[in-house]
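Lab notebook page, bench 4
Experiment: in silico fold of construct C2
Operator: M.H.
Input chain length: 433 residues
Purpose: comparison with the prior construct
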Amino acid sequence: MATVAGMVMTMLAVLGVSVALAPPAHAQVISDIAYAPAQPAGSRGHLLDLHLPSTGITPRPLIIWHSGSAWTSDDSKPGAADIAAIFNPLGFAVAGVNVRSSAQAIFPAQVHDIKAAIRWLRANAATYQLDPNRFAMAGDSSGAWLTQMAVFSGGVAALEGTLGTTGVSSAVSTGLAFYSPTDFLQMNAQNLPTGGLDHDSPASPESLLVGCPIQTCPAAVAAANPMTYVDANDPPLLFLHGQADFLVPHGQSVLLFNRIKAQCGNATFVSVPAADHMMVQIMDPAQYGNETVRTTANCGETVSTGTLNPSWPNFTTWLRSGLKLGNACEVTYSTGAWNGAFNGSVVVKNTGASPVQGWTVTWTWSGNQQITSAWNATVTQVGNQVTARDAGHNAYIGPNNNSQSFGFAATATGTNAIPAQFKMNNIVCTRVP
């Protein structure tokens, strides 16, 4: 037990997990929601926290976050407060999800848990104004492993489990993973020349997860390997790893990228020189421009240097693309007036490189205009705030300057100035005269 405790303390010390920030003032935090009954009784592995923004359109896209602990903790959800502080102001909801520790249950319990949490969140999406079609998963270290298992194992019955809510999809649309383990059997061989953890030890985090010394149970280890489930239909994954990682060898992510490429999947792998097993080092601005970025799609590969700096704005762009929210847009707005009333025409163009599936355009009147009817969109107004949602048949906007349009009739007395700003799916659009 002393050996186990020492390895765990080493792992946690090097992880560099920051102290959770206080919840952002604008967010509502609902804590300790039970997504399944506690196992064992009194434990915290089946709880989640929801951080809900007060800004942005509804229903909200959701980021599910799990903080790494080498599978030793059943209460890692407080780390989601840091993520919510970044993403709540952008209109994203954030769920911090606990799963059982390896001391409470061995694999595949942890995957059963995260899938049960996803099913619960999807089944209760309307209650919390979440968009059930726009769930992303993210995490670091063992939380990144859990992210990859969720991204790659959609539809794998053996990993679904029967906990909590059933009969609902546990799929996610995209993933973001920091320095994840993948093939446990190769970790010792991939350790840095200066050393690393003895992953083959019966007391290693990986052996404790699968319930046996990993070299003695290759079938169990293969089942816990995210690469086992990779295929061409998987959602897109962005994953990052430091080349100086002492705890989880950088080669683990190299293996994963090569597997995704071989299976004609969709992924981007950012390799950061000199970074250890810490997000603060992965995201260090001093490293910007030095990363090796490998991208694969349609069985091909591109390699570049420094074209995707590891920053929250860039991660947001990735997540928005994977959720088909769009990243860039233009709006053309024109009116025709008569006797205190007018017609408006709006063209929204997707100027980004990823498609938009389902759009909401919002603006604020500067005067006392009032919508009376609309076509090719469902348009509602509260005070001077206007929300226009696609009509279903025109929900899709292809990338690279494809567009959709809608119109409305309204009344106006006094000023009828053009709104100062338009947003599509919570991003500001350039207005074209």
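Observations: The chain has two domains: 2-322, 329-432. DSSP finds ten helices and 21 strands in the chain.
Next step: discuss at group meeting.
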